[in-house]
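WARN  no MSA supplied for this record, continuing single-sequence
INFO  ligand: zinc ion
INFO  echoing inputs
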Amino acid sequence: MGQRLSCRVQDEHGLFTAVQFGHLEVVNNLLAKDPSLIHQTTLYDRHSALHIAAANGQIEIVIMLLKDPSVNPDSLNRHKQTPLMLAAMHGKITCVEKLIEAKANILMFDSLNGRTCLHYAAYYGHFDCLETILSAARTSHVAASWGFSRFVNIRDGKGATPLHLAARQRRPRCVHLLLDSGALVCASTGGYGFPGSTALHLAARGGSIDCIRELLAWGADRLHRDASGRISYLIALKHKNEACAALLNPSSAEPLVWPSPLKFISDLNQDAKALLEQALMEANREREKAILKGVGYSSPSQSDTCIADDNISEVSETELCCICFDQVCTIEVQDCGHQMCAQCTLALCCHNKPDPTTALLTSPVCPFCRSNIARLVVAKVKANASDHDLDLDLYSSCKLPKLRKARNFSEGSSSFKGLSGVPSFGKMVGRGSGRIPADNECIDKP
Ligand SMILES: [Zn+2]
Ligand SMILES: [Zn+2]
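INFO  complex generated
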């Protein structure tokens, strides 16, 4: 992965080797003897000690080097790559965090492909690094001087955005995070891949059905043509990615699209948003199943295992959604207070496509009282709660609301603490892209 950092060249003092392997004492001794070594670089690539430490995840050495005020956190190697770019390339999250804390500039471009650290994180699929860089961008000078959404859609020398690279390299979690952060799903490249390619073209080429699912759910246009006039369906066919082609075939059923233009969607709190996103991805998976049956592709999705144990009989009638009588009410409409399930909420809000003549989504109203929807929130549960209600209540206060339908929770959520044991938010977001731990990994931890 990435570039090899060879230290064998011109390392007679042994510094670079010691840095690479994290021998802090050796490094300290060498620098004590000859402080000028700290500014030495490797002969060919011109890597500094900080580059080598960052690329190899030697966090102690990174910390030690950064304490020296004469060390520039943005030192450049031969290809104008910063230590931060190398850390993002190699997925060394602690080094990424430390460098950003030391005010490393996230808006530097290398001389190889004109890429930033955000491109590197997306290309190599390091979700945690991508997340850290994005959150730095929200608060740093970049947001003020450049604008956050401009940064998310930053182009490399060939016109590729981080979204293009993540889609091409089959990184569905990064694709999801970028889209969720405002990456433009319809942007096309200049010279990267084939001119005029969208992320959907590149995902079709890469053959990642998870990336395609994400892109379609965010409104990617299956009819968009690249500069040679090809739609993504043709690209998938050409590269023999049959399952991808089936979903991209303009004549197959349209997926539900995340209704981001609606005001109350952009105002959703994290919990309500997670519920709706799950419902959307589930609904699309059901559609996919029907489409993919035709090409004999068995989706590795988790839907089957998770839905299999639904203990619907234990859910009392009063908790059920009054529209479908199938799911538990998880979403509350405000201001009127009516409740329904996430699936029905989406069915009311999600259109396959905005009306092409007006390019507008009509604002939906509450299906019960026809009043305007000001906000959607996670449904609160009544006071005289049964066990199930309690589970729901716990759920609605959860900061990482990534379990499936609420009624799945009743199975084992007594150990709710298990949720905080889930490795990272990133992993959970991955649920939307078809890679998730089995439910008991989330819930049943002691
Ligand atoms: Zn319903
Ligand atoms: Zn209402």
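The pocket of zinc ion (ligand 2) is lined by residues 333, 336, 338, 366, 368-369, 371 (CB under 6 Å).
INFO  checksum written, moving to next record
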